[in-house]
Amino acid sequence: MNILLVEDSEEVSCITVEFLHELGHQVVAVSDAEEAMARIGDARFDAVMTDIRLPGMSGIELTRALSKDYPHVPVVISSGCGRLEVEFLLGAKIPNVLMLPKPYDLPDLEHTLAQAAEVSQRR
């Protein structure tokens, strides 16, 4: 898969990029939602992974915008917040949005991306 990673922590970004490469995926990493919105129009991404807490536009705002403008692209929200809190912040359950609780390991990431691929194929 070609994945757009939105993560402002350099350490978490580096580890996630390493995991994604190990799983055979291509990844473009950016540190804020505004850059993600600019990049998603430039290339075809199979999925977007985002943190909730980002500088400027939050990951929740990014997820809402992506779900509206790119409903065929699965969005994986990676957060230390619980699933119910994220759904509360989103305001609704959105079909193309998946959760990946932090901290996660390689099998967790692999499983969530397999779910994202299924979501993408249904659209």
Describe what is shown at a glance:
Helix content is 46%, strand content 20%. The chain has 123 residues and is of the alpha/beta class.
Commentary on this structure:
There is one protein chain. This protein is of the alpha/beta class and 123 residues long. 46% of the residues lie in helices and 20% in strands. A five-stranded parallel beta sheet has the order 2-1-3-4-5, sandwiched between helices. α2 (33-40) runs parallel beside α3 (59-69). The longest helix has 17 residues, at 106-122. It is globular and about 30 Å long. The protein starts with a strand and ends with a helix.
Quaternary class = single chain
What is the tally of beta strands? 5
Q: What is the string of helix and strand elements?
A: EHEHEHEHEH
- Rg, Cα atoms, Å: 13 Å
Strand order of the largest sheet: 2-1-3-4-5
* Helix content range: 40-55%
Structural class, judged by helices and strands?
Answer: alpha/beta
| Count of helix runs | 5
CATH superfamily: Response regulator
The end-to-end span amounts to 16 Å
Profile the largest sheet.
5 strands, parallel
* Percentage of residues in DSSP E strands: 15-25%
CATH level 3 topology:
Rossmann fold
**Which CATH class is shown?**
Alpha Beta
Shape: globular
Task: Domain count, please report it.
Answer: 1
Task: Enumerate the spans where pLDDT stays under 50 for 5 or more consecutive residues.
Answer: none
Assign the CATH architecture: 3-Layer(aba) Sandwich
The averaged pLDDT comes out at: 88
